[in-house]
């Protein structure tokens, strides 16, 4: 199978910190592979090494068939790298930013106007072409950054948390654009802390503390989940969580917005015991049902197996994310 990226024991050390720890990973052509994990997992360092910006401490990598770091400059000409803080020029208009990056990437002049027009249409920015980039919304800035990254027709895209801080509607629109790129044959390696975005990837690589925990399709990862899940909605939630933890057969309790996820060995055997415990405590039970595991359930199980302890939180839009 043709691989856009191949790494073997790829490692990056900063003093006493091992940011990426012996990463062995392949990215197929074409696919969207998500690097998923909390801050400090090694996502950004991995992308910077694959972009040829940061040399590895040890290990090997090939990008588009070329070895790193030996062929870093040739690789840079064939990839598009979008860091977390993409450097748009706030005083330049949308089309002036595109023209600037076309010059940086040495896009032949006869092709520039056509290419810029295609990208304005593709990113749905035609109506904003004369607007200074500094006056765009967060979602439009990210779409412009992606358009600038695409100006030289890269074969591989490396996107570092491109939708962090963007509203839910703009995030969905951004992912719609990524799917169009995939349909055109592009390969995309995208890092994200969002579990709903992990679901949208062809394959997911879960990272924690620089180490690869597991790789697979969302369906494969959920099918391999070793336990069952009971979803509980009860009031007050905090006391319900405490009571549920006391029930025999409940292995863990996680908070998901207004719901609790109870990790259990057998949902049917534990369900009535949980119901009884909440009733005895005088709590209001709104819902109790078995559900399939989510990607966050899978990730938390992998963390437990690896002996890691990473807190999780909720973003303002209610989307489960790692923090």
Give average pLDDT, whole number: 92
Judged by helices, strands and strand pairing, the structural class is: alpha/beta
Give the distance, in angstroms, between the N- and C-terminal Cα atoms. Answer: 35 Å
* Secondary structure tally: strands: 16
H/I helix tally: 11
Tally of structural domains: 2
**Fourth-tier CATH superfamily name of the largest domain:** P-loop containing nucleotide triphosphate hydrolases
> Runs with pLDDT <50, length 5+?
308-319
Strands of the largest sheet, in order across it?
A: 6-7-8-3-9-10
- Taken from the alpha-carbon principal axes, the silhouette is globular
CATH fold assignment of the largest domain: Rossmann fold
**SSE ordering:** EEEHEEHEHHHEHEHEEHEHEEHEHEE
CATH class of the largest domain: Alpha Beta
- What would CATH call the architecture of the largest domain? 3-Layer(aba) Sandwich
Structural Rg: 22 Å
Residue fraction in strands: 25-35%
Main beta sheet: strand number and arrangement? 6 strands, mixed
Helix content: 25-40%
